[in-house]
Amino acid sequence: MKHFLVAIGFLILFTLSADAQQCDPDAIAVVYTKFVENQWQAETLGERFARVINEDIETATDLLCTLDRSSLRETLFQIDPMVSVSYWNVNELDQLKVFIETEMDGKPLPERVEKIATERHWRIPRNYNCWSMTAKRRYVEKCLSSNAGHRGGTNLSKLRSSIVEAFLKGSV
């Protein structure tokens, strides 16, 4: 499903860029100069949580390790809320069409259609509360290292390429 959504995202971006090629060049420049970091760069759960509580990642990790399973599950959801959306009275083939029209294009829901939003919480093992602090820390660090939201990729400050580095050094 994730690969399907990524493919849809690329299709939408391709459509937008194809439409942009038919626009006024000055208008295109305005669109491309509005770089909003959190819309383009990946952010980990740890980076987001540390930013929200105004602490470093180490302190954020320590804080999360003290929580019980239920509180950790709710906190991770609050850091990165994920919701599955489906529609009642819409056949399976039209679900994506209704999603794009209502969520992306801002159109109202058609009559007789009901939106169903289901929260998607982290699957934390049931015996989490019995784990040692070391095991909890490993688990929390793994959670915090995953990307927040639906953005893949990396943060531009972390991006490294041996090809680009060689070019900048003049050895290519």
Which SSEs are present, and which pair or pack?
Blueprint (H helix, E strand, L loop, with lengths): L1 H19 L4 H9 L3 H4 L4 H9 L3 H9 L3 H11 L3 E6 L6 H10 L9 E6 L13 H13 L16 H8 L3
Antiparallel strand pairs: 1-2
Write out key terms for the chains shown:
single chain, 172 residues, mainly alpha, two-stranded antiparallel ribbon, 9 helices, 2 strands, 53% helix, flat, disordered N terminus
Characterise this structure.
By secondary structure, the protein is mostly helical. It has helices at 2-20, 25-33, 37-40, 45-53, 57-65, 69-79, 95-104, 133-145, 162-169, and strands at residues 83-88, 114-119. Helix 4 (45-53) packs across helix 5 (57-65), helix 4 (45-53) packs across helix 8 (133-145) and helix 5 (57-65) crosses helix 8. Residues 1-32 have low confidence and may be disordered.
Query: What class do helices, strands and sheet pairing give?
Result: mainly alpha
Order of strands across the biggest sheet?
1-2
Overall mean pLDDT stands at 76
Largest sheet: 2 strands, antiparallel
Unreliable stretches covering 5 or more consecutive residues: 1-32
The share of residues in helices is 40-55%
Distance between the termini: 40 Å
Order of helices and strands: HHHHHHEHEHH
The total beta strand count reads 2
Query: What quaternary form is this?
Result: single chain
Task: Tell me the strand percentage band.
Answer: 5-15%
Note the overall shape.
flat
Task: Compute the CA-based radius of gyration.
Answer: 21 Å
